[in-house]
Structure to design on (89 residues):
């Protein structure tokens, strides 16, 4: 973890925030030789495709094959027809 003064943070705010965001760096802020705060990077951002790839890796080999085939053949339409209509009587 990198330690910087509050004054240094104020003078170089944008570049330090870039280090945190893009370099996943953790920063400890110090004022008058006393640590006053820690700044941590936010949670990683994923788009839908990246999330689906991660999901695919968690499936068993048989389930992954079926999932991939369903996606290619359009079987999701039949699966959608099996869903219960929450507003139906």
């Amino acid at each position: 973890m990198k330690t910087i003064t509050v004054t240094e943070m104020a003078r170089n705010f944008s570049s330090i925030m870039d280090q945190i965001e893009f370099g996943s760096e953790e920063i400890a802020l110090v004022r008058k030789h006393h640590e006053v705060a820690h700044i941590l990077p936010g949670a990683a951002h994923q788009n839908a495709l990246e999330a689906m790839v991660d999901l695919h890796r968690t499936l068993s080999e048989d389930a992954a094959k079926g999932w991939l085939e369903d996606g290619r053949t359009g079987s999701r339409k039949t699966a959608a027809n099996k869903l219960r209509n929450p507003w139906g009587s």
Q: What stands out?
A: DSSP finds five helices and three strands in the chain. The first helix runs from residue 6 to 11.
